[in-house]
Structure prediction request, 145 residues.
Amino acid sequence: MWSYRGFSTYSSCCSQPSYGPSAPFPWWLWYPAWQAQWNWPQPQPCPPAYVPQELTADATTTTANALVGGSEPANLSLEYDAGSGASPAITVTITDSSGTATWNLTGFPTGFHVKREFARVDPGAQLTLAVTSATAHLRWFEFVS
Prediction:
């Protein structure tokens, strides 16, 4: 199942004291000087994040392509469901600097299925998802800093 647990958010990212047109009055009126030296909100560096990416192929769009980005390897997960047609098939092709790898899945039963982290790819890899009589989502997280 697709999950956002790998995605990091920080509400205090790059925080600054409240002042300017959105503040009801200048910050120095409500922020006593004795607190400023101890409690002044310090700017925080924005942390790196994992950005979710997805390729989808179905009866309407049978082939989809994408480039894996980010700065770290990504783990691919595949969610798929057989359509009402005969002999469903799914092909995932991964092309990178070391060559091409193809992952085929045929003859699976109807219903929803998940293959978690079935492949690990480096940034810069080209992905191709192709389906016949099926619907599939190829998903991964890209690390961005």
